Amino acid sequence: MTASRAAALSALICVATVATYSLLIGVPAVRNHPEGYVSAFAIAATVAGLGVALGRRWYGWVALVGALGLFIMGSYVNFVLARIPAAPTALALGEPAPDFTLIDAAGRRVSLADYRDRKPVLLVFYRGYW
Amino acid sequence: MAELQGLGAALSDAERAGIEIVAVSPDDNAQSQRLADGLHLNYRFVADRDLAVTRRYGLVHPRGGPDGQDVPRPATVLLDRNGVVRWLSLSSNYQVRPDPRDVVRAVRAL
Predict the structure, then answer these.
(1) Residues A110 and A101: beta-carbon distance below 8 Å
(2) pTM, whole model, 2 decimals?
(3) Longest alpha-carbon distance in chain A
(4) With contact defined as beta carbons under 8 Å apart, do B62 and B82 qualify?
(5) A58 shares contact with chain B (CB less than 8 Å)
(6) Are B60 and A90 an interchain contact pair (Cβ–Cβ within 8 Å)?
(7) ipTM reported for the complex, 2 dp
(8) Whether B23 and A113 lie within 8 Å, measured CB to CB
(9) Is A121 exposed, middle or buried, given 0-12, 13-18 or 19+ CB atoms closer than 10 A?
């Protein structure tokens, strides 16, 4: 492999990884494996480093800095930002969920107790903005 | 919302009619309704503006929001007719959400 090919391959891995995780984020197999992008950026940085070792060209350094930047950023997002600290919850398998009453999008009151003896309920807590 | 996408398609009409999906978020109702319209499913979106219920459930991710505010930690809970927890998915990484296929399997196992 030549220095230019290594730089191009590294850049290609980075672009393909960013494209995969932005376009296919709705696919559970992609979304639920965030370690995939961290690994891909690590591979891209290694390839770029190899390219620089083969020949110290400006494009080699650009590829290396780019891949390393993505690797550091991705690691920070996945291992620091996205990490949710463990905390005890009021939920346990086989135990009743605490009742609540809240207002729905149509302005109606919704209580968990309304569904008792009527229907199973899938309760989803989500962040709202995504 | 990723966990809600694809769930509608994975369930049959009868299964959709037989279960109530209650989605809780600090979003205001107008925002939730826009989401509901795009999902083609009968969800009840309820607003927990001050996170009081989320907090009571122990599902707050402290300072996890983009502006350092408290946000819910993603959680999906399946309750049977008696209100008893039968299946539970709690994520320790906010990027990871339950696969709709796992949710469907749990619904069918009720």
Answers:
(1) yes
(2) 0.85
(3) 72
(4) no
(5) no
(6) no
(7) 0.89
(8) no
(9) buried
A32 contacts in chain B (CB < 8 Å): 95-97, 99
| Chain A residues near residue B84 by CB distance under 8 angstroms | 94-97
The pLDDT score that the predictor gives to residue A72 is 98
Calculate ∠ Cα B26-B32-B33, nearest 5°. Answer: 155
A123 near B CB under 8 A: yes
Half-sphere exposure of A29 (CA within 13 A, CB side): 1
Beta strands B43-47 and A121-125, pairing class: unpaired
The answer to whether B78 touches B88, Cβ cutoff 8 Å, is: yes
Asked if A84 lies within 8 A of B61 by C-beta distance, the reply is yes
**Mean pLDDT value across chain B:** 85
Q: How far B16 CA sits from the closest chain A CA (Å)?
A: 11
- Burial zone of A63 (CB within 10 Å; 0-12 exposed, 13-18 middle, 19+ buried): buried
Cβ neighbours around B4 below 10 Å, total: 23
Q: How far is A62 from chain B (nearest CA, A)?
A: 29
Contact residues on chain A for B41, CB-CB shorter than 8 A = none
- What percent of the residues of chain A are helix, what percent strand, and what percent coil, each to the nearest 5? 55, 10, 35
